[in-house]
Amino acid sequence: MAGVKRKGVAPNTVLGIDHLVLRVKDLAASIAFYRHVLGAKVERQLQTPRIVQLRIGESLLDLVPGGRGRGSKGAGANLDHFAVRAGALDPAAFARRLARYGIVPDQPKDRYGAEGYGPSIYFHDLDGNMVELKGPATRPRIMRGKR
Fold this sequence. Notes:
This protein has two helices and nine strands, in the order βαββββαββββ. The protein is of the alpha+beta class. The strands form two sheets. Strands 5, 6, 7, 8 and 9 form a five-stranded mixed sheet that branches. A four-stranded mixed sheet has the order 1-4-3-2, with helices on one face.
């Protein structure tokens, strides 16, 4: 099955994260949480299999009802955290947004991400998943292997 080719991009070149799938205890509460906290928009819903796909920037966050993953080798037990990129970071305003859910974020720190070093904030979602809100880079990324 051939997809649409992108001009100037070699086949099988990874361009970024397409989607992430989270199993959640309360689908409606998680949809409301990600809409309010990260500005996610419901893009698509299926009843069978039950899935809600939220658009966050250029990627999708898929929410499915249930507990731990059902795949092989302990699926669902090896995600440390996932990070979403923000255009700008206002830690106080973001903390107020999370307070509505009784969540207190970690203090902002300068961390390395896809664009380089910049501010980020860790917090837990309603199901205990660690999420990182990553602000824009203040120092450029490390360029290795340039030819």
